[in-house]
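> @MW can you paste both from yesterday?
MW: sure, first one:
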Amino acid sequence: MILSIDASPLIISLATTCAATIATFFLGMAAARIMYDVRGGLRAWVDGLLTLPLVLPPTVVGFFLLLIFGRRSFIGRALEHVGLTIAFSWPATVIAATVIAFPLMYRTTLGAFEQVNPTLLQAARTLGASEWAVFRRVLLPLAGPGVIAGTVLAFARALGEFGATLMLAGNIPGRTQTMPIAIFSSVEAGNMHTAYLWVCLIVIFSLAIIRLLNVQRKMRVIERTETETPGTDLSEAVLPPVLSHRKREPAGALEVEVERNLENFTLRIALSAGQGSVGLLGPSGSGKSMTLRMIAGVSTPDSGRIVLNGRVLFDSTTGQNIPAAGRRVGLVFQDYALFPHLTVAENVGFGLARFPRQEREARIWKQLEQMGIAALANRYPSQISGGQRQRVAIARCMAMEPNALLLDEPFAALDPHLRRRTEEQLRATLAGFSGAVVFVTHDMEEAFRFCSDLQVLDNGRVIASGPKHKLFERPRTVAAARLTGCKNIATARRLAADCIQVDAWECRLRTAIEVPETLSHVGFRSHQLSFQKAGGGENTFPCWLVSTSEAPHEMTLYLRLNSEPVPGQTPHLQADVAKDVWRTLSSQPQPWSITLDQGRLLLLEG
């Protein structure tokens, strides 16, 4: 006896599932993208509402759908006037499956979006990408595996939907009877053979879906392993000379005067940048990086004004705020923010989409050659070294010919040797750049080598600013002296117009300039202490060695003045001397004579 089976439940199920998956894909993607940007208390409520069908019993969801689309509902009556009926029709099966499967697609996609480094999206905006381009070229490709997983799970959930479909679409053979409903009907009628057949089909589909997810996960592991295979490290190769080009006329200046309330303080900064690099020097958390982000447009000040080349980028009084994509301000992030799914050449050309292909390729290769990374064009960021990534990030910004270039600690992740070489290459690259350059660092020596003018930040305030030589020679405050590398700082009080008392050093010092009434501290740089053979003199004292610390090319000596130290006493001063000076000193009996030059005393305010 041959078992006769009506194939309509299979056809209806597949048609319903495919239609519901397509609808869920676009609806879930749109909802996830919108919710990605939502913050605050509203987010939790909206997210809970969108996820509700996942936790409610399907029959309850179906009941609500019936209230919405039933013939007695407002929507149902309105549709009947145009000849459409939703309840107990095939479209009802699609709606029910879509509503039930939607939360899986939405939650999985939102989770995938949130795993993408937001700095990559900010980098894309600073390169001129519109929000649609950022979504299409960065967010979606990087979140792709999660989006695919959400789509597969939504397909599986739509295929197995029963309760909501039964409530809204009913059990009409040949019209709304899906495989799960056919199983229910067959068991209810005692036709177990037919029920077994539909169950086997659903199990086969489910196993295929599980297998598809596992294959996708395995492919991601293989892809990660392949892309993380390190390539040849060319960071030690001889860098090619910068291509000669005519130096452009000055493009103008950057004027910034903004405020922004942060968690621990209010950032208030005013700076001007034209020809040459302006350095922002300060400890971590002082507001340096936030300043760059506000200039680039990826963060918004609470008040103030930003003007570049006479063009107002932000003005709180008029409400003007040009998006990052329209500012033409290049920002090199601290972690470089290279797009991991694009090759080196594709990264460099990311901001050049508006140019014809031939010109775009010419610009890409020009920057690759200038930065010495042409051989890396077809590699991915995970296949190159830190120094090479840094050069790619700089080349990517320079390719778009920005009006201002912002560098956020670009050498922080490099070893000292490679840092100096890369710094030289960057300086050569910027030789013909006529725009403003703002350089953020917490390294005093790096700021001094690279920048012509400095601003010292501390807790969101500019505590010192000016030409670097003046700032290093005469810092006005204790914080500025510390940030510019002064290691010997002690409280002091004014005794006369040219004399101060330093109790912590157990000495009295003469000064070359008049002591200000606001004096609270005195400072002296450790490398400027000088040792005398013998004899007295102004600000010359006997000193004894407490301890030493050795570096490759110098010795650090910890000293006490005027009296031989006893165990447990702390040193007064730190002196950094060359190894040959140390060899001479160590052969001489103590006490030694040390001089604090009057002209090099730093008279500081607290």
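MW: second:
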Amino acid sequence: MTDQGAPAARAAGAPDRGDLDRSRRIARVHVEVEPLHLDRPFDYLVPDDVEVVAGQRVEVLFAGRRTLGLVAEVTSDTDVPDDRLRPLRRTLGDHVWVRPDELATLRWLAARTGAPVADGVRHALPKRVIEVERAAAEAGWYPAAPRPSSDPAPDADALDAAWAGYGEDGRTLREAVTSGHGSFLWRPLPGEDLAARVGELVQLCLAGGRDALVVVPDPSSPAADGVVAAAGDLVVDTRGDLKQRAMYRRWLEARTGRVRVVVGLRGVSLWPLERLGLAIVLDEANPALKERRSPRHHAREVVLERARRAGGVGLLVGTVPSAPAWRLLRERRVVPIVPTREAERAARPRVTLVPDDGRYRTRLAAEATGALRRATRAGTYGVVLAARRGEGRALVCGRCGERSVCPTCASSLLLGRDGSVLCEGCGWRAPKLPACRACGERRPVPLAAGAAWLGRELTRSSDATVAVLEGYAQTPPPPPAILVTTRGSVLDTPPGPVGAVILADLDGALRRPTLDAAEDTLRLAVQVATWAAHPLTRAVLPDGGEVVVQSREPEHHAIDALVRWDPGAFWKAEIVTRTALRFPPAAVAIRLGVATTDPGLGAAVRAAVPPGTDVLGPLPVEGELTFLLKADDRAATLAALRPLREAWSKAGTTHRLDVDPVDA
């Protein structure tokens, strides 16, 4: 006999045990343990001196260890024999951690992602800090706080003017936020002041007596700053590197109702609010919004579901919809909020397409260098988007573009840190590049130039200050200057007026070996191109800045959608390819990785899934076998895999399941 809790075995229709002592209290607990085969509530006896209600977090003994759990139900009924019941050890805090509707959401999340409920509980709840509870009790807002009031709604005439570019769609969204409900996908105008618009929506929600949740992909989001400014002392901002004490205090303020707005990264998707009326996800397609640990959910799905269950508004914001968002649009489960065509034409930047003639020695076309020169002479920034950080390692001939290959194994040659060339395939190395097989040239250039390489080229050829920005929170020099940036430095708001945006290497991004390469490339290009149309730019250049696109594939539908500024046209073309391949959004992708080398695993997976589910693989990835499943019915496929996964769990075989992986 072990001292772990006994599983709650009573099922619907089970016989009533007349001999059960009705005075006993039984807590049905989701124990926070990882194995999938233990994903069920366990019954514990509540001692006479312990007060416990559903939703409280408790400490229990499970398999001889002190473990946390969440009470799902308090009952007097159990089918567990008396000698197997173990007592609860203690409750954690005087507050309810998870309310019944929130537990229902956690169970929905577990079913949707194929994860144990306990994983969702661990993800949703912070670590307890008793000192925070004591300080809050002394301050008078724990275990419950009086509901704070908000400022009146913004002036109606001012709102009409600010949202005029969206026509009837804008009025529909604002009316829903004030007192209605629904799911929406908003494509902002190019150069839109997102901080102001999102702040107005939050104010409308608060004035209507409801609360707001805003999820952002990065801590430097200017739109999140706008929400914090608009909500004042009604908001908790969880961005930044918060310590355990600070994070628990903010969560407790939301739990007790002391605040009415929560702003943060993907981790706040499940944070509590008293009367959720508006839940927003900014840049909904950003991969940073996808959780990397179980349950591997995306903030997009969680936010929409929470808003739906609360009778509020779920709002996704983005320029080019993700594949899952496009699927929701096609199924009419979200309502598009888009600018009028006239407003979008007036607001969009001027885009010039320059077909690339295969230049390698000089990365930028004359049209691009001319645009940078005009931008800096006007006292603004010129921005060059680099494909990657650093130098860019795979080499081609600087004259003709012939790929530089290893003389031993024919793999691509790379540039070493000491200036030598090397092959990572077989280890061959030489102090300098061999002569090009096609033209005899010995000067190498990267196949896709990194930010550092472009920065050096521009420093040699330009009189303006050149700064290379790689990653978040980089501080640029004041304009005029040329900024060479990577995607990590591309935010909703430019660093200042931008007179020129140069997109010189979109082809490299389009050729990445991932299915979402085209949509991701277009999304990034649109985001940085809007800097040339931002109010900061138009304050200096009334007609906005220039956008120059260089491409060897000018007919590619992603390039065409960028030049015509028509994201909808991209998906109309992209969906043809996706449907033929049965990839998202035409089907649901599920990635399954199992830490085994069993040659029979593929046959077992194929035998388990329902008809109509395609299984690709296995491929050996980092010590495991990985499969990609394409399913028409996500729930049926996950249910069919469950017995197999529970068997792996019992055997101690590690496996990972990811529904809608961000790179599929």
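> thanks! Residues 634-651 form the longest helix (18 residues).
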